[in-house]
Every structure is written in structure tokens, then in C-alpha cells.
Amino acid sequence: MLKALPFFTHDLKLLLSFMKIRTCVLVIIFLFAKCTAFSQEVTLIKIATKNNVLLLGVDEKTNLKQLYFGKNIPVGNYESLWSHSELNYSTYGNSAAEVALRVTHADGNMTTDLGYKKNTVTRINDNITLTTILLIDRFYPLEVTLTYKSYFNEDIIEQSMELVHNEKGLVTLYNFASANLSFKSSKYFLTYYSGDWAHEFNMIETALPEGTKTIDSKLGVRTNQRTNPSFLLSLGDKMQEDNGEVIGGTLAWPGNFQLLFEVDHTNKLSALAGMNPYASQYALPANTIFKAPSFLYTYSAVGSGEITRRFHRWARKYGIADGDGSRDILLNNWEATYFDFDEQKLTNIIREAGSMGFELFLLDDGWFGNKYPRNNDDAGLGDWQVNTKKLPHGIPYLVEQCKANNIKFGLWVEPEMVNPKSELYEKHPDWVITAPNRPLDPQRNQLILDLSNPAVQDFVYDFLDKLVKENPGISYLKWDCNRYITNAGSSYLGKDKQSHLFIEYPRAILKLMKKFRKKYPAITMMVCSGGGGRMDYGSMPYFQEYWPSDNTDALDRITIQWGLNYFFPAIGMASHVSVTPNHITGRSTPLKFRFDVAMTGKLGMDLQPQQMTGEEKIFSKTAIQTYKDLRDIVLQGDLYRLLSPYSTNRVAQMFVSEDQKRSLVFNYLLKKNIYADKTILKLKGLKPDALYTITEINKTNFSRMGAYEGKTFSGEYLMTAGLQFDMYNEYESNVLLLTTP
Ligand code: GLA
């Protein structure tokens, strides 16, 4: 902890006029005493990573202030920062802006006035340091603890908040942000996401003038269907890939969230991140801890590319299950059969999958329900017994078929949901989320189970537990979630706690995921929510993979994956080659293009191999083998964005292995250019002095790589002169492997 040492000249003058020189000794003693007294009042708290520092200070009135957040420079004179400091965790009562915390105390007082009490710093290991700051209301027995976990090498700060009180009665929480950061810049540009089913992760950049901008979800469940709890904030200018100050932040929470940016009349920006206060006031009994989710953030002085690489490195180590491992190449029957399958059909697919080199077969929706068979999406959800008509020999038979073909077996589940047409609903109509005196409001013919109810939690856990216990061959689960909350209401929570639902539901789902993951660490799990509706770092630690979108059209996937890749790494990003014309968009693209796109993530396929031509099968088999040989570059490598789909019809990105010895460069043309697209591709992230040999992969009988194939160039050359080759055709693509000994 660092202490400030102020020098008070006015004190000195005053004293000298009253004292003789011989008493100077006394002056010095006086000044020393004054400095010591001040230094006891002024505390600085430094939360540092390799490249960032968040500097907080406690002023003489014990207010916690943010002095600085940015590049980790040796901060010379801390005193100069005080004049621009801002309250770090604002509360209603002492701020006229949107506040981090607003509660009504048990006696009805709506204001909160927090004073700093103490901080602790714990070194968890060589990389992680935990700083906690205790703030206490100056009158009421209410404590707020801010926690900051700093990941040194990855440059990520994980911040959250806990509140507890000992008042005589309930304290009602209305605003409960996890973090509150301040910024000062001439201009601010915010990049965030918009979208919907099959159209996820579109990036929007907007200037932030004076006023308030909120990015939030009010969907309760499947909260990321329309936006994601992640943002990029660029200071001074529009966001650039390799230059400029950018802050990236994401809330680790699958529930309703709110990211709020308020620019005041002095052009100061206050950012709040946390659970959405919307319809969520929370009555907290005494001595009960209210925990806000983690908010993860980083600052880059060199553009958004660095933000991405930091989040990816962090995620592979801490944010996603088995982030340091590999991933199996999967064949999914969803787009191949939808609900229309039987044992024979699946057996054929499994055989083909084995012969093509797949490593895993995933049986999607439609395998369960007997009284109400799941033959389409209007029945059976909740009745997790194998449909004996479709699968007379049950799951074990399919597992055997997979084993015989040397591949693993996976299964689709949607644990939180129920169709009104199901035995489960007949038995427990009170288990669904719905408001009293309102008609049921199904989406995709389904309702949401009320997970705030412990009995429902037990049902969900027990069915998952039984499923994998009784079918030991299941090595993969796809956990889906296909609707959001409307008519919010819980028959369990009681009339005083209806507004707790949006908080208790995500808490319960995280608890379930954690419990299941703990008991079955070897099962690979994919998080899915009608596509990318549940993509957050609250859920991700329990899953190895995520399904970004039901839209498997390679052209659309380029943009969807481009957007999500800012925060989420390729190792989890399931990307499947599917049939053409695409089932959702009707677009036809070459098989090579589809592979070249899918191989930027976790490769899979969503089609009937039997419907492929011999030539297509040969191409696919070779591409699958190539992916096996090179997948670690994509799954574990650093991502560099070269040409964005938001600015040109030529898109390019590359992955560089950690040792910088191998790289894969992916390059696409999205639209026909009769004059040729002549964009020069300047590579990034290579070792300038190393000599890289170029080989094209996923080759067809046509190549534009004549000038490069098999040739060797220095990293410096490739990053300066770049690769220069023309492209003409719509959906043309190529992938280059760069290797250096
Ligand atoms: C959702 C998923 C799909 C598929 C279907 C099954 O839409 O996103 O991948 O699993 O459900 O009903």
C-alpha cells in the first residue's frame, strides 16, 4: 500500500512568522507530524496487472475514489490525480447520476453513505491477486465488500460486490451493480451487440454524447438472444484494431444484465455493469449475503485486437471448461434429420461418421417422450425417457454403434423446459413460470420450469444425473434453452418475493451447472440457447463448447463468429459445415468455403453424409484429417483480425500458435468482384526474423497461391509487404499454413 506525503506551504509560512530560526527544529517536527497524520488518512489501493493498473484512493473523508485506470505506468505524483478522482462505487444519496447501489433501509431511509473501512490483499498464486475493500454505511449496519481479482499475465480484472446488513428488518435492494468505473476523454465510442435468433452478434458502434446509454437484457432466461453482456469502449476516437485506447468488459452472468454508460455535462463517463435492476427489487434479510456477479474487464492502449487476445488467453485458462485441452470433431444429426429418425437412420449416420474421421456423434432433439412423443417441438419436453418407438434398444444401443465405429456419443437435453403437452406438466402444472390470473404464454410451444423452486431444481438435477448414470456411454451433452420469460411469476416465491425471480433463476441454473459439472468432470458439454442465447462467462466455466447460432450458413457465420470472437475464444466455438442450399437462408456456397469458415472454430458437421457425393466425401475426409493435424493452432492460438466483414468484402483473420512457429491464415471473398479484389493482406503476430514456409490447405484443383506455395518469407516481409493475390469469385476462399522450424 502506498502513502501520499503532501507538503503544506501555507502551514510553513504561518509558522515561520511566529517563530524564530532556533525554533525551526520544532517546525520540522510539526510538519512531520502533520504529514504522518495525513498519510494515515490517505490510502492508495493499486490493482495491477502486467499492462494495466486500477488505482483507487481513500480521501480524508474516507470516500473511496477512482484515481486512475489505464496503462500500467509508474505513476509519479499521486496527488495530481486526486483533483480528477471520482467516487468509485456510487450510492443513492451522494450522487445525482445513475448509481451503483440504491437500497431502502429497514427504517425507510432511501440513501446510503459508504465509508472506507479497510482493504486486504491476498496473493492467490503467481498470477492471481485478490484485493477486497470493505465499505460500511456511516450510520446503518450495512457493509459492502468490493472484490477485485487481478489476473496478471492475462491483464484481466474480475470485479464483484457483496452486500450484507444487520438492520432490524428487510433492506430492499433496487440497484446493485458489480462495478462502477469512470473515464475521461474528449469522445467516447461504444461497441455492443444486437441480433436475434439466427442473426446473433452483430456489432454496432455508436458515439456516446452527453446522456445515458443502456445495453441490457430483460428476457430473464436466454438473455443473450438479442444482445450480449459484453462491450468495447473506445476513448478519443472510433475503435481500431491495433491502435487507440479501448476498454473491453463482459458480465459473467446468465440472467438479466445492465451495462449503463452515462456521460455528464463535464464529459465525464461513468460506466455501471451488473445484474439488471429491471423488475428485480430484492428484499434482503439481515445477515444474508447478497452477491453480485463478476464483471471482467481490461484496458488496451493498442486497440481492440489486444482486448480479444487477452480475453481468449484468460478464457482458456480460467473462463471455459478444459480451455487448455483439445476438442472432438462432431457430427450432429439436427439438420440431417430433425425429429425424423429411427435406430436404423442413426446407425447409418454413425457408420458414415466413423468412416469419415469424425470423433463424436451428437443425437439432437427428438429422442424422448412416449405418452407424448417428441416428434416435433409441440410435445414431450420434460419427459426424459427414451422414445421406445424410435429407439427400441435405447441409448446403450447407439453408444455401442458409436463404439463400433470408434466415435463417442453425445445427447441433446433442454433441462429447464416443459411442453404443456407432457406428462411432467400434467403432474406439476405449478412448476412453470407464469403470472397468476394470466393465460399461459408458450414460445416454441414450451414453458419454463420455475428453477427458483428447490423441488424443481432437484427434478432437473436428478434427471440429468440418472441419464448419465444409466447410460455410461454418454460422453457429451448439449444443454439447450429455447425461450425467454414472459408473464414472470413464481408460485413458489410467494407474493413478497415475485421480483426475486430474475435473480433466483440464474442463481439456480448456475448452481445446477456447477453441481453437475463437479460430479461429471469428464463429460463434455455444449451450452446452447436456440443458438447464442446463453453466452456469458458465468455459464462458460461449466461448458467446453458453445453454439453461436442456429444459422450455419457459412457467409452469415463469418459475421456472427467475427462478432463473438471479440470476447469468446475459438476453442469453444462450435462451427458446423451443413448442407447447401442452407436450411435457414437458402444460400448455396461451395463445400470448401463452408469448411474454410468452420475450421476457424471447433469443426463439426450438421448433415447426412449419405447425401454427399463421392467427391464431396473425399474433400471432407481430407479436410477433417487436416483439421486434426492443425486444430491446436486454432484452438490454442492467438487470433489476429486482418480484414473485417464490417468494412470490406474481403475478410481475413489468422491464428498464431503460442510459440509463433505455426500460423493459419483464413481468407474469404464475400462478393463477386469482376475487376478483382486486390487487397494486400498484411499479416500480424509473426516473429519478424523467422522464415515462414507457406502451404495452402483445403486445396481444390484451383489455387491462387502460385506465387506463394512452398515458398519461404520472413515474418517481417509478410507483415510489411504482405500477401498479394487477387480474388474474383463470390464465396472464394483459401487457407494458408505458415510454418517455421
Ligand atoms: C435449438 C438449437 C438447435 C437444435 C434445436 C432442437 O434451436 O439451437 O441446435 O438443438 O434447438 O430442437
Topology:
Layout: H1 9-18, H2 24-41, E1 43-48, E2 52-58, E3 64-71, H3 79-82, E4 86-87, E5 101-104, E6 114-123, E7 128-137, E8 142-151, E9 156-165, E10 171-184, E11 188-194, E12 202-207, E13 211-216, E14 230-235, E15 245-252, E16 257-263, E17 268-275, E18 282-284, E19 290-291, E20 294-300, H4 304-319, E21 330-332, H5 334-337, H6 343-356, E22 360-363, H7 394-404, E23 408-413, E24 417-418, H8 423-427, E25 447-448, H9 454-470, E26 474-479, H10 501-519, E27 524-527, E28 545-546, H11 554-564, E29 574-578, H12 591-598, E30 602-606, H13 614-636, E31 638-643, E32 650-656, E33 662-669, E34 680-681, E35 691-697, E36 712-714, H14 715-720, E37 723-724, E38 732-739
Parallel strand pairs: 21-22, 21-30, 22-23, 23-26, 26-27, 27-28, 29-30
Antiparallel strand pairs: 1-2, 2-3, 3-4, 5-10, 6-7, 7-8, 8-9, 9-19, 9-20, 10-17, 10-18, 11-12, 11-14, 13-16, 14-15, 15-20, 16-17, 24-25, 31-32, 32-33, 33-38, 34-37, 35-36, 35-38
Helix pairs in contact: 9-10, 11-12
This protein binds alpha-D-galactopyranose.
Any overview of this molecule?
- It contains 14 helices and 38 strands.
- By secondary structure, it is α+β, with helices and mostly antiparallel strands.
- The protein folds into 4 domains: 35 residues, no CATH class; 277 residues, Beta-galactosidase, Chain A, domain 5 (Distorted Sandwich), CATH 2.70.98; 307 residues, Alpha-Beta Barrel (TIM Barrel); 97 residues, Golgi alpha-mannosidase II (Immunoglobulin-like).
- Strands 6, 7, 8, 9, 11, 12, 14, 15, 19 and 20 form a 10-stranded antiparallel β-sheet that branches.
- It is globular.
- The protein binds alpha-D-galactopyranose (GLA).
- The site of alpha-D-galactopyranose has 11 residues, from loops.
